Amino acid sequence: MSDSSLFKRTIHKHDIPSRWLPKSSRSIRVYLPPGFQPWMSYPVVYCQDGEEFFNFGRIATHAQRLILEEDWEPFIVVGVDVNVKLRTSEYTPDGERYLSYTRFFAEELIPWIESHYPVRDVPEQRLLAGDSLGGAVSVSLALAYPELFSRILSLSGAFYDVYMEQLRSAPSLERLSIWMIVGLQENEFATDRGTFDFVELNRQAEQTLREKGAQVLYTEKDGEHKWGFWQKELPEALAPFLGPEPRAFR
Fold it and tell me: Membrane-spanning residues where (predicted)?
């Protein structure tokens, strides 16, 4: 294998066909790790807000460094793009496009990726990642499709009442492992649904998840509701799932 192959960072872009989404396709981007080999199998991270995870979260840059410099097992990252104007409609359970989006994600995107890339096809090797509404819809997906998802990374999840109703009505969540963070300066954040205390939203979600038996790693620290905060936290967020010495959930 040449040195250029070993250190190369590769990102592919695709339009995934869909019978569920109104426009019949969705753009995604796929990061392949250095030294990628199609006959191997890899853990996979699925990111809501895919364009922002790649451009503002710099997840491909983080992944490249962690694999090459910190001896992490190579993994693949899939970013699923979203139209910002339609984001709330797709990500919130009472949104008009929520069912279409979640069905696309679970029933079309996952099979497409698994038929085109050598990703591992068990819940313990799939990680759902999202910021704000993306973190909350990742939990929704794990509730709706327990056979597919059991690991979640939530950056300042927007756990509105409609998500909390889903959590409270769920059966045992002992199968779930979730890493959560929220910034202490997110206590009065304006959204298209009003102004919320995201610290309190996340505390309530953490408590309910624990009551349901989920394994949770929860952190509060200084930070605002923006990528300048989340981007710095991504390596620590990924570590319990993909790092060489994962922290124990509790």
Answer: none
pLDDT at 4 exceeding the cut of 60? no
| Both structure tokens of 29 | 């981007």
Interior CA angle at 73 toward 70 and 75, to 5°? 115
> What local confidence, expressed as pLDDT, does residue 3 receive?
46
CB 126 within 8 A of CB 134: no
User: If you average pLDDT over residues 227-247, what whole number do you get?
Assistant: 92
Q: Which amino acid is at 181?
A: I
Read off the amino acid at residue 96.
E
Short-list 35, 106, 30, CA closest to 67: 35
- In CATH, what number is assigned to the domain containing residue 31? 3.40.50.1820
The per-type count for the chain, helices as H runs and strands as E runs, is 10, 10
- pLDDT for 52: 98
Question: Is residue 235 domain-resident?
Answer: yes
Its pTM stands at: 0.95
Range of the domain at 64: 3-242
Confidence at residue 250, expressed as pLDDT on a 0 to 100 scale: 63
Residues present in the chain in total: 250
Residue 250 domain flag: no
Q: Is residue 78 part of a domain?
A: yes
The distance from CA 195 to its chain's CA centroid, rounded to whole angstroms, is: 24
When divided into structural domains, the chain yields a total of: 1
248, part of any domain: no
Tell me which residue of 219, 204, 66, 250 sits closest to 153, measured CA to CA.
Answer: 219
> In sequence order, which residues have a C-beta less than 8 Å from that of residue 55 and are 6 or more positions away?
none
- Render pLDDT for 118-152 as a digit per residue (tens, 0 to 9): 999 999 999 999 999 999 999 999 999 999 999 99
Tokens of residue 220, six digits: 């509060």
- The token duo for 31 is 């990061």
